[in-house]
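Work Package 4 report. The design task specified in the project plan requires that, given a folded chain encoded as structure tokens, an amino acid be chosen for each position. We show below one input record used in the internal validation round.
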């Protein structure tokens, strides 16, 4: 089985701040990390390799420094890593990104047929959850989104069975290979990299492919191939704090004060009356 995993290097959103004057992200001093959803996707792919055998190829699109997340992938058990890096890729939205990754996967497939693609559900710097489905659509692969568990894979029949989130519960579904999965954070707990693989990851070669190497149409990549762009980034407006009541001395009085404050809110009172009528 040949599994391809797509990962992305992202800014650590816990450290990201917004410049109130320019409404842009302040990237100075912000640590770059591997997208957490993608690390779970990688763990899922490596577990499938451990169980069924085969190969895991990891692809990332980004600047030269994104090589670090590919070395992390090697330390976790990836067999081959490829960095898609070209100035022409800059400014790509999800449409252009999915096109670029799909073209790279086509090249990988020519060398060894790809049975499964595993992606994180979304990237924490964009939260669109569009790239994985976009790749599947371009390649004509079966797609399973919001996957929390891979329950079985039958290479002889060319089928995979997964458990996925749906509104109000879960769904167990089976479909044909080749397929693409987008996985939730709870799909797997990423392993700790063993020392031999850590050493290997530092010495291994990272292949770098540009737009020409994947046979990309210049009009379909980067800013030229992106019909959407970010016009402005801004934080939510600060909210005024609500009233506070001291419940240490007189809890009953504090509760009564709280109820009075809630009833003074017209919207809350209307919802409360509506609930009583029902």
């Amino acid at each position: 089985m040949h599994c391809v995993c797509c990962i992305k290097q992202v800014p650590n959103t816990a450290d990201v701040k917004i410049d109130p004057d320019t409404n842009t992200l302040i990237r100075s001093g912000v640590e770059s990390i591997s997208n957490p959803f993608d690390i779970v996707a990688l763990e899922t792919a490596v577990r499938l390799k451990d169980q069924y055998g085969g190969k895991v190829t990891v692809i990332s699109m980004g600047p030269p420094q994104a090589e670090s997340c590919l070395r992390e992938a090697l330390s976790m058990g990836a067999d081959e890593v490829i960095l898609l890096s070209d100035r022409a890729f800059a400014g790509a939205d999800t449409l252009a990104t999915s096109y670029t990754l799909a073209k790279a996967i086509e090249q990988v497939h020519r060398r060894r047929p790809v049975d499964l693609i595993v992606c994180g559900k979304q990237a924490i710097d964009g939260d669109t959850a569009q790239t994985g489905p976009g790749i599947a659509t371009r390649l004509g692969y079966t797609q399973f989104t919001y996957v929390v568990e891979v329950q079985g894979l039958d290479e002889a029949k060319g089928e995979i069975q997964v458990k996925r989130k749906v509104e109000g519960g879960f769904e167990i579904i089976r479909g044909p290979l080749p397929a693409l999965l987008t996985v939730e954070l709870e799909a797997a707990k990423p392993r700790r990299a063993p020392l031999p693989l850590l050493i290997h990851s530092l010495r291994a070669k990272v292949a770098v492919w540009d737009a020409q190497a994947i046979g990309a149409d210049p009009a379909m990549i980067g800013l030229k191939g992106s019909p959407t762009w970010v016009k402005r980034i801004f934080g939510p407006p600060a909210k005024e704090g609500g009233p506070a009541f001291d419940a240490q001395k007189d809890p009953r009085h504090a509760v009564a004060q709280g109820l009075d404050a809630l009833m003074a809110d017209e919207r809350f009172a209307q919802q409360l009356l509506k609930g009583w009528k029902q």
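Residues 49 and 227 are 37 Å apart (CA to CA). Validation will be extended to a larger panel in the next phase.
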